[in-house]
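Hi L.,

You mentioned the student needs an example of a multi-chain input paired with its predicted structure. This one should do, with 556 residues in total across all chains.
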Amino acid sequence: MNKHFLSKRHVEFRDTDMAGIVHFSVFFTYMEQAEHELLRSVGMSVVHEIDGQKISWPRVAAECNYLRAIKFEQIITVQVSILRIGDKSVTYRFRFFESEQEIANGKITAVCCYFVHGSRPISVVIPDSVRSLLHEYLE
Amino acid sequence: MNKHFLSKRHVEFRDTDMAGIVHFSVFFTYMEQAEHELLRSVGMSVVHEIDGQKISWPRVAAECNYLRAIKFEQIITVQVSILRIGDKSVTYRFRFFESEQEIANGKITAVCCYFVHGSRPISVVIPDSVRSLLHEYLE
Amino acid sequence: MNKHFLSKRHVEFRDTDMAGIVHFSVFFTYMEQAEHELLRSVGMSVVHEIDGQKISWPRVAAECNYLRAIKFEQIITVQVSILRIGDKSVTYRFRFFESEQEIANGKITAVCCYFVHGSRPISVVIPDSVRSLLHEYLE
Amino acid sequence: MNKHFLSKRHVEFRDTDMAGIVHFSVFFTYMEQAEHELLRSVGMSVVHEIDGQKISWPRVAAECNYLRAIKFEQIITVQVSILRIGDKSVTYRFRFFESEQEIANGKITAVCCYFVHGSRPISVVIPDSVRSLLHEYLE
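Structure written out for the whole complex:
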């Protein structure tokens, strides 16, 4: 069964460009904000501490397909689900709707990493506690 | 033969996030800015008039793969080429380098459209004059 | 009596910079979003039609004072009031709070303008219907 | 004598909004980018190390006055000078020009701070070596 997380938002003025529509790059911050809401909804944060280790999720891939333009003050719903939980990475799927019509869809793949201040992030196997929390939204 | 356009830039402070690196969404505006530079280099603009008709290029797809993080004040080179010129669309390919190392790569597909104020953009066959200008950067 | 409008929000990841705090420029979009919420709350929009004329509110001045830094996922309250309604302009005052502590405050002055497509905006006397709606939030 | 630093730039597509002009918040990142260019021109960076101490410059105030709208692909010149060097703070003045016409002007006041990872920045007296470098652009 396909469980997903829903996030609702207004299109803000600054999200638009001179073409009068939401700029294509803004959909990526919309996706990220919906992902972070999902994480908060299961009691996590994108910057999280587990056993005294700071973990976060740098992105390795992101993509978006644009079906229809949206405009200032339109209300959009972002539907988030998890397409895949790998050993070290998670792929989120996003679908954007305005009044029931799909306007865009996309994916983000993020890698679970330990962060030590001043050094490069080190990818690690997703801790079981995190895995089981994310499992709720696995397609 | 593979001809490409090169664009060079500094990473700005606002391009970074609390992880200390360039935010993944920023690569999409980097791509767009390099695309617009390429268009200017052949005498066009992304908002262009041909035979009294305003044409522009809404995006239908965008993607990016992230290989290495980059930081404030690093200098990056964006290499742009054209992967495909279709009847109505163009797919650009972008590769990002910092000190010879590839840090990311991506694609944007844009559709040639007529813009009439107040109505929806209408996709049109790419005018021959535009096609031949873009041809210079076709892979 | 001092009536004000309240807007609540999360700090988003993209709002931060490499210093780990919200970038100073972001407070201006926070102010604008709170202003637009206030306008919606009285049945207006920042892009509004009155008697078949499109009016909007270009800015002539904006300022912000920063008292304390704020971080990702902190919840901030933006308090908006109107400092002055002139013949043609409105000055909004904004105060930002996090857990009762003031973190920043600022002002935006916007001018009422008619927009005709393709020409420069023309400043006009604020229509009475608009003036009386805004009056509710006048300090 | 009034010495100033000059920075030139294109207006990018993402800098615009649905009103077809540069969004008012973007002027603040333009100011910051010109400030950082000025710092680089005298051999500094906004994130700088002196005697093993990391110093940076959080903002305490920022303001902008808007005189004329600017549009996509217009070329603007930002003129930066230093209005005041205090014990611990610097106030920069910015003037924006397009084809000789002033389009906006603004100020940013930044405070010299030591950054220790994980703690609050501590304001400090501007080191003499920094003060003398900045002095070159003092009005």
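You could point out the following to them. Chain A has two helices and nine strands. Chain A touches chain B through 24 residues (CB under 8 Å).

Best wishes,
N.
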